[in-house]
Amino acid sequence: MSKISGSQIIIEALKCEGVDTVFGYPGGAVIPLFDALYSTPEINVVLTRHEQGAVHAADGYARSTGKVGAVIVTSGPGATNTVTGLATANFDSVPIVCITGQVPTSMIGIDAFQEADVTGITNAVTKHNYLVSRIEDLAETIKNSFHIAGTGRPGPVVIDIPKDVLLGSYKFNYDGKINIRGYKPHIEGHPNQLKKVVQMLANAKKPVVIVGGGAIISDSSPEINEFIKICDVPVTATLNGLGCIEYDNPYFLGMHGMHGTIAANSAIQECDLLIALGSRFDDRATGKLSTFAPNAEIVHIDIDSASISKNVNVDVPVVGDLKVVMKQILPMLSAVKRPEWMARIAELKKKSHQMTRGKDRITSIEVFDILNKTLEEDTIIATDVGQHQMWTALYYKFKKPRTLLTSGGLGTMGFGFPAAVGAQLANMDKQVVCISGDGSFQMNIQELATAVINELPIIILIMNNGYLGMVRQWQELFNDERYSSTCLMKCRKDPSKCRGVEEECFKFIPDFVKVAEAYGAVGIRVKKTEELESAIKKALELKDKPVLIDILTDRKENVWPMVPAGASLDDMMKGGMTL
Amino acid sequence: MRYILSLIVENKHGVLAKVSQVITGRGYNISTLTVGPSEKPDTSRMIITFDCDDKVISQIIKQMNKLIDVIKVFLIDEKEKVERELVLMRVHRKRENEDSLSRVIDIFKGRIVNVTPGNFVIELTGHSGKINAFIENIRPYGIQDLMRTGPLALPRYEIK
Lengths: 579, 160
Ligand SMILES: Cc1ncc(C[n+]2csc(CCOP(=O)(O)OP(=O)(O)O)c2C)c(N)n1
Ligand SMILES: [Mg+2]
Hints:
The structure holds 2 protein chains of 2 kinds.
Chain A: E1 3-5, H1 6-16, E2 21-25, H2 31-38, E3 44-47, H3 51-65, E4 69-73, H4 77-80, H5 83-91, E5 96-102, H6 118-122, E6 128-131, H7 138-150, E7 156-162, H8 163-167, E8 169-171, H9 191-203, E9 207-211, H10 213-217, H11 221-231, E10 235-237, E11 252-255, H12 262-270, E12 273-277, H13 283-286, E13 297-302, E14 316-319, H14 322-329, H15 339-350, H16 364-374, E15 380-383, H17 387-395, E16 404-405, H18 416-426, E17 432-437, H19 448-453, E18 459-464, H20 469-478, H21 512-519, E19 522-526, H22 529-541, E20 547-552
Helix pairs in contact in A: 1-2, 1-7, 3-5, 3-18, 12-15, 16-17, 16-22
Chain B: E1 2-10, H1 15-25, E2 32-37, E3 43-51, H2 54-66, E4 70-75, E5 81-92, H3 98-107, E6 111-115, E7 119-126, H4 128-138, E8 143-148, E9 152-155
Antiparallel strand pairs in B: 1-3, 1-4, 2-3, 5-7, 5-8, 5-9, 6-7
């Protein structure tokens, strides 16, 4: 077998893994690898404008398709810039393989130029990482990395490759069988546990199902929909579980948790059996643990045994791949009807979250009424983090899995737009919409260049309230309206003397419309609700460039309902809701 | 309560960092940690002891199992184990209590392994409880330096 370079081994391995797109940013340590990519037409190399953007883009690519996203960055600062992206993906179980350049093996440890201890730095934010110090191990390491990233509870894997390994030469062999003795994910649920679950379902009067991100990742939406129909059981989603159940499905209660719906939170508190499917009982979802679902026995089905009984004490754990477990359990079920409980659910659902409409500026519900009317059901929505994210979760009518890309666990501002870029590249047949905030968008605004250059018809909706709105909401409710460092229009030295927006305050810093135009995208400003629909329709027609719509929204609208941090799901603040 | 956790891990770059990262990153405290070669050249054995409750130890076990480079994790049963720890102490040598010091060392079956005009170096192996008792008995003689290995432990039977 003839020998090829380390860089070429990587390219061949990526091809074997079916990688068609790599998000990356070059630098000294990876010049040989980018050189090899230069003559690889099978792989589209997307140059983002920041390494964080590259990882989020690979994340959006992966979340929207289920495939493993691929990233290549240089050593030192290139690698450290990926940390937030990796942590975001790790928290939400997104499969990514991130190759980082490293200084030559002979220089590791001497504080060489652009040296960083990448495996040390990324230990806490990856599923696994490798330093490849021998070219003999390169192909096998890449193969194992893709396997680890994409199976079990997925997650990011970093491969740190010194430059001399890229430049070395060795034979390429990718036929070996994967055998990682410390990594054998549980796939099938234990039959005895499943029997218990079936029995509990038969005895329960008021069961509720929670679907989490695991339901989306494992593609179990069809099985779960069948399950809830047979068992006549209402279902609520976590933020990352949205899309598993269609919004209009009568069994669907909406999201639960801190900004959950009244129906979802109340149903959890009233239920006598709670079945969590691929959800890890995040504190934002459970509120105060000691009063969470106080009357319920809890079943938890998850691929990650470490998620079981970590926060909530589980009565019946089932470790396995959710789709496989669902397929095991479906034939064991017998159909039931629970008319009383479903009547109670219908009653709870009537207490929906109707908001008052705005007078001067646009309110959230008005934006989402229009989006629900104008967007196709396979539209992919990427969000940033803040109020706009929670309104998306509450009001946008998700109909399909993998149509919401949002940073749930880490809550990373700046995730949405680069994720939209990655998702659009993977789904050129679908519309991608990024719903962002005026604060968040500025955290990866530079990716406008990537979107324009790649002619991506992403629609960017900025819900522009001139505030770091979510933090401002907390300050209003819990810090005596002391808006310390949250106004984006003008920061007074003494915020307590701020009397709201005045003449001297800057109106548009930055002017997002002009920013869009400066990058070669289209920018539209929307000041009135009536203008929004036509702006979106116009944007939908443009097929070769991004359109940024700067929506001037009500500056001080709050997200309701809200369970204060650390409070019980029973204690929902309902603020301006008209019930 | 004290738990003795036994890990078989890959004998590879960065494994100790990964294991300790997960434990400290989640806010758990390691009491002792001992690493060394195992019966196979490509694996190492770690014994980590914790003072915690059963909920915490079960989380730790699950988190250790999640690590790719950790091949096997098990708790060592206190009743079915052989445990040994080694302690070295350098102690002041004073004429007036040399005899009584020797007697204490004999009782515990310890050994003086080095002597200078000013001090002794003493060694003892045994389970951790015995080491604790020994140290307490030596303390009045004036310990200059002390180093313990932390326990090594093996189950008495093969763990499948
Ligand atoms: C990287 C990062 N820094 C800080 C925060 C804390 N944070 C959460 S929401 C938020 C405000 C977001 O403002 P904006 O994007 O304008 O959204 P809005 O809430 O106004 O809709 C902040 C600062 C965060 N989540 N991520
Ligand atoms: Mg804002």
